[in-house]
Amino acid sequence: MNDALSLAGFHVGVTAARKAEEQVEMLERRGAKVTWAPALSAEPNRVDEVALREATERVLGGPIDIFIATTGVGMKAWFEAAEDWGLLDRLVEVVARAEILARGPKSVGALRARGLRELWTPESEEFDDVLRHLRGRDLTGKRIVVQEHGQSLSMVAHALRRQGAVVESVTVYRLAAALDPTPIFGLVDQVADGELDAVTFTSAPAIAAFMDAAGSTGRRDDVIAALQADVIACCVGPVTAAAFEMWGVPTIFPERSRTGAMVKFLEAELPSRRAGLSLELAGGHVLLLHGTDILLDGVEVRLSPAPAAVLQALVAQPGNVVSRQALLAMLPSGTAGSEHAVEMAVARLRAALGTRVVQTVVKRGYRLAVAD
What we know:
Shape: globular
Number of domains: 3
Structural class: alpha/beta
Distance between the termini: 31 Å
Largest sheet: 5 strands, parallel
Helix content: 40-55%
Low-confidence stretches: none
Oligomer: single chain
Strand order of the largest sheet: 2-1-9-10-11
Number of strands: 17
CATH topology of the largest domain: Rossmann fold
Mean pLDDT: 88
CATH architecture of the largest domain: 3-Layer(aba) Sandwich
């Protein structure tokens, strides 16, 4: 695929604050029109040195049983601060004696740079898998130190305490919203009005800040509807994508959680979306989706928002079962929040497409009946 032409004619929003120039350049080199609107401050707001040093002294106050590193930038900053205070050797010595768990390759890199070796890291890079690794273990009396990322991990600490652990959280930095919200407000409007083809996100806090901006401008429902329909939410990896789950927004992300991989993934995905999605259904019917247009055997089908949202969710996983809860999360805001609302939406979808197109899988959910 020719880099100079592969994204020509597409308009992509970029929400990254750090290393945004690199991402914008990669997209523009492929022909995309780019709107850059940082959702977060370009530099993380670091905790004052007094608070971080107090937390470090508490960590050094006794042996650690389990040490959890969550981010490379956080570990690097903590080690550098400890070095300035003359505490680095003690910190490394205490951590080295613990069972070290690292969330991903960046935190692994920061640890190894100081001669520390992790005992386990999840392939997914998801923090939930770190908790899953510890779930079921007897943590009674175990002292666990958790290096927080840009957002509070207080719920994680509470979960570990329920297993009997003594938890010490160390906040190295906090992520803050961009000082000037004007660009992100403009991006919200562009998404809500369907003026963009895709928006990229490189962190969960950026998604939170973006949705906060959408709420502040009164356009959150419009944004969710657009992201459920025509505008692609492209995330750097599953950890970032998980932040959209609570909003019922479908996402795409590459196998490797890297900016370059995300851009290449979007490069392949956008042209295929524009071409439209064609599915051969059971019974020889052909379903074509092109933007908001829906055609069954060449005849236009008009759907209200709720059955349209259900169809989008089923089409995203053709032939696979989608749970009622997952479908409920996809329904437009304002729809009655119960499984009965899903049943009504499915009934309307069947009325429009045919009763055999959407199959019920007892006690599991629904699936789109595609041809074998």
